[in-house]
TrEMBL record:
InterPro entries: Homeodomain-like_sf, HTH-type_TetR-like_transc_reg, HTH_TetR, Tet_transcr_reg_TetR-rel_C_sf
Ranges of residues in domain HTH tetR-type: 21-81
Keywords, alphabetical: DNA-binding
PANTHER family: HTH-TYPE TRANSCRIPTIONAL REPRESSOR SCO4008, TRANSCRIPTIONAL REPRESSOR
Keyword Cell cycle in annotation: no
Species the sequence originates in: Paenibacillus helianthi
Top-rank taxon: Bacteria
A Pfam family the protein falls into: TetR_N
The entry's DNA-binding region: 44-63
Name of the protein this chain belongs to: HTH tetR-type domain-containing protein
Keyword flag Metal-binding: no
Family annotation (Gene3D superfamilies): Tetracycline Repressor, domain 2
Length: 228
């Protein structure tokens, strides 16, 4: 049996790569927390540096500037979401009957809603970042170079579903992804405001009930009524 021998140079190189990745992760965790708490405009690099326990110069070295750091926070959150929900949604999108079979389209909306709610509740800081962006008219979001293609994919899906009579004819397909995102995020973000009526989303029962209600609202809002 051969035994691989790692030279001291290779060991040091691997250690440096690992340390760099770990350092980036710690900085991104700190940045995500501060951006979620204060929004992009009010967040400061020195505050993020203090939270991460790394100096500002290292942050600039890794990310260039505050916008570069913010871009990486958004990018990482989207990639995490893709890892968690992407396999489920991608599998459903491959179904050739998705835009021709009302039952398949309804199942897609239900699964997508469930996975989206689950992701946002597990990553509440990202949800808060979205609402900070909305409050600031998406000015920073529209400056970042990273652009997930989810909206384009959903728009194309809506066009095909409407052509086949599954999506309601009086709905603009361009609004399909926007309405779904806003119904989901606004409901979750507002839940604490109405805890006396709804209860806390930390409860598995309340979480399931809210997910079902969001899914039903979306389904009945976008699908052709005669199919329901």
């Amino acid at each position: 049996m051969e035994v691989a021998i790692i030279s001291p140079t290779e060991g040091k190189r691997s250690s440096k790569i690992y340390d760099a990745a770990r350092t980036r992760g710690i900085i991104l965790d700190a940045a995500e927390k501060i951006f979620a708490e204060l929004g992009y405009s009010a967040a400061r690099i020195d505050v993020i540096a203090k939270e991460s326990r790394y100096n500002k110069s290292l942050i600039y070295q890794y990310f260039g500037d505050k916008l570069g750091l913010y871009t990486e926070v958004v990018k990482r959150a989207d990639q995490i979401g893709e890892q968690i929900t992407g396999s489920f949604i991608a599998g459903l999108l491959k179904n050739e009957q998705l835009v021709t079979d009302p039952a398949a389209f309804r199942e897609f909306l239900e699964v997508m809603t469930r996975e989206t709610v689950s992701f946002l509740l597990e990553h509440r800081s990202y949800l808060r970042i979205l609402f900070w962006e909305a409050a600031e008219d998406w000015k920073t979001w529209n400056q970042i170079t990273y652009r997930p293609d989810d909206a384009t994919q959903m728009h194309d899906l809506a066009l095909a579903a409407q052509k086949n009579g599954i999506l309601r004819q009086d709905l603009d397909p361009a609004l399909f992804p926007i309405l779904i995102m806003n119904v989901t995020t606004a409901t979750l973000q507002s839940s604490s405001r109405f805890e006396q009526l709804l209860g806390k989303l930390d409860s598995p029962q309340m979480r399931e009930q809210t997910t079902q209600q969001i899914a039903k609202f979306i389904i009945h809002g976008v699908m052709e009524p005669s199919l329901l």
